[in-house]
Specification:
heterodimer, A: mainly alpha, about 0% strand, globular, B: mainly alpha
Chain lengths: ~325, ~220
Amino acid sequence: MTGLVGAVAQVVVVAVGSPLLVGLMRKIRARLEGRVGAGVLQTWRDLRKLCRKEAISPHGTGWVFRMAPLVLAGTALVVASVVPLVTTQSPMDGVADLFAVAALLALGSVALALGGLDTGTAFGGMGASREVTLLALVEPTILLSVFALSVRVGSTNLGEIVTAAVHDPMAVISPVSLLAAVALGVVTIAETGRIPVDNPSTHLELTMIHEAMVLEYAGPDLALIEWASGMRLFVLLGLLAGLFAPWGIATAGAGPVAVVLALVVLVFKVAVLGAGLAAGEVFMAKLRLFRIPELLAGSFMLALLAVAASYFLA
Amino acid sequence: MSDSVYMPLLDLACGAFLLAGVLVLWRRDLAAIVRLFALQGAALAALVIVLAAHEGSAGLAAAGVAVGGLRAGLLPHLMRRALVAGGEGQESRPLVNVATSLLVAAVLAMVAYDASQPLVRLTPTPATQAVPVALTVLLVGFFVLVTRRRALSQVVGFLLMDNAITATAFLTAGGVPLVVELGVSLDVLLAVLVLQVLTLRMRAAFGGTDLDELRELRD
C-alpha cells in the first residue's frame, strides 16, 4: 500500500516540482550573475501562458510532429513512476529495470528528434542530427554506469540496486561507485542539455542542440516539451541522488511516515544537486560542439572502467 | 591490518592509479599531463604502502616511500623543468584523436582483463586481482608512447609503462629484490635525464619537439 502511495507521490512531486526546479536553477544563475532574476514560479507562469495560446503546427508537418511532445511527456511520466525516487516498492517495479528505463528515456529523445526532422527546416534537421550523435554516446554510458552498480547486487532492477545501497551505505565509497558517479553525472548534464554540452538559455544556431529541435513548436506543444524536459532533468538528478546517496528512500515495509520523510529528502537532494549544477554553470563556458564527443567518450570510458573494476577488484 | 580496511584501501589506490593513467589520454595540456603523472606516482606509492601495512613488512614500506619520492616528486619535477625550458604547452595534434583514443583505452582495458585471467587464477588474492589494472596502464602507456607527437608526452607514456611494470611486480610478488628495484629506478631516472637534455637540444637545434617533423636528417 505504501508502495502505491509512494509511487503516486513521486509522480506528483516530479510533475509539479520540475518547473520549480528549472525556476530555482534560473534564479540561482541570475543571482550569481548579479541579476535579480524572475521568481521560482516563473516557469509555471510561462507554461500557463503557452497553454492558453492557440495550437499551431507548421505547414507540411504530419503526425510525427504532433505525436513527439506527447511521447516525450508520456515517457517522462512513466520513468518518473518507476524509478525509485521515493520508494523502492513501486507497483510498477517490474518495469524499473535499468534497460527499460534507459530505453524509455531514449524513446523520448528519438521521438523529439523525429519531430524536429519532420518540420523539414534546416534547424530542425541540424538539431536532430546533433541530438542523435550525442544520444549514441549518452545511452551506452547510462547503461554501463548503472550496470557497474548492478554487478554488486546481481540484478539490473533499479529498486534492488537502491535497496542494497540503503542497507550497505559504505559500499558507495568504492572506486566502482566513484567512476560510475562521475560518468553518470556527465551524461546527466548531456542528456538534459545543460552547460557545457548545450546552453538552454540561448538560440545560437552554431551551437544549439535541444533548442534547434523544438524551434518550430509553439503554444501547448511547446509547453508540453518544456515541462517534459524539466521532468527528465528532475528524474535524472533524482536517480543520481538515489543511486549514490540513497539515504531516506523508503524500502520494503516502511510506514507512511517514511514515505513522507522520503519525499522531503528527495526534494532536498534534487534541489541541492540542481543548485550545484546551476552554480557550476556560471563558472563554465559551453564546449565547442566538436569537443563534446571527447567529453562523452571520456565519460563512456569511465563507465566502462567502472564495470571492469567491479569485476577485477571484486 | 584487517581485511575490511585493507580491501577498500587497496581498491581505492588501484582505482586512483588506473584513473590517473587513463586521464593522461584525455588532457591536451602538457602541464596537466605531468600533474596526472605525479598523481599516479602518489597512487602507486600508496598502493605499495597499503601492501606493506598488510604484510607488516618495513622493507616494503621503505620501498613504497622511495617509489613515491621518485615517481611523485623527482620525475615530475624534472619534467616540469623541461616543460618550462621547452615552452610548449599543448599536445597539439595526436596521431589518434582524443575521443577515439579514449575508446581505444576502453578496449585495452578489456584486453588487459582478459590477458591477466591466467595470472589471477594462479593465486586469487585481492592483490593479484588488481593485476588487470596494472596491465591496463601498461597498454595505455604504450598507446600514449606511439600516438603522441610531443617528446614530453612520449616520455610520460614511457614512464606510465614503467609505473605499471612496478605496480605489477608489487601486486604479484610483493616487489622485486631491492637491488633490482634500485637498478630499475636509476635506469628510469637516467632515461628521463637523458630525454630532458635531448629535448632541450632538439629545441635548440630545430625549434620544436614535434618528433614527426624530425624524420629528415639536417646538418
